[in-house]
Amino acid sequence: MIAQRMIDLIEVHSDQLAKGLIERLLNSEKMSDMRKVPLPELQQRVYEIYHNLSDWLETKTEADIERWFTAVGTRRAAQGVALSHLVCALLAVKENLWDFLAREAMLDRPLEVYQEIELLRLMDQFFDRAVYYAARGHERGSRALAS
Questions:
Q1: Rounded Cα gap, residues 22 and 34, in angstroms
Q2: 67: which of 115, 125, 129, 141 lies 20 to 30 Å off by Cα?
């Protein structure tokens, strides 16, 4: 079982996490193309990842991740977001989450440490898949725009 206490902490603070990340996305030159995405859409997508993290990690299948992130990648290509900016933004979502957990997670028992390691492993796996499928969707969207 993953560290449910940490998942709950993330989901409860999903608004705060999303706001901090949006600020970071909009102020970074590495992700400047993300400014092309309408702000409400960007906020909603980031919020959905954080607020539904337990679903993404525990109940969503790889096909669900593929479907959602391929669509995101395709949409970002249509919006003129460079692939490098999209990948950097997805990595920033994960980094922001790790920073939050480093500040907020208080681990008291060995079981909690084990659960945190498992959570981090699952998060890494999820974000690796998210980046891959978003890149595939972006490639598809770019090909469609070129034809």
A1: 9
A2: 115
Closest CA to 93 of 22, 8, 6: 22
Residue 23's φ and ψ, nearest 5 degrees, are: -60, -45
Cα 46 versus chain centre, distance: 6
> Crossing angle, helix 4-12 and helix 110-146, to 10 degrees?
50
- Provide the number of structural domains found in the chain: 1
Tokens of 89: 């933004």
Whichever domain contains 125, its CATH number is: 1.10.490
Q: How far apart are CA 60 and CA 58, in angstroms?
A: 6
- Percentage of residues in the chain with pLDDT exceeding 70? 90
* Count of C-beta atoms within a 10 Å radius of residue 87: 19
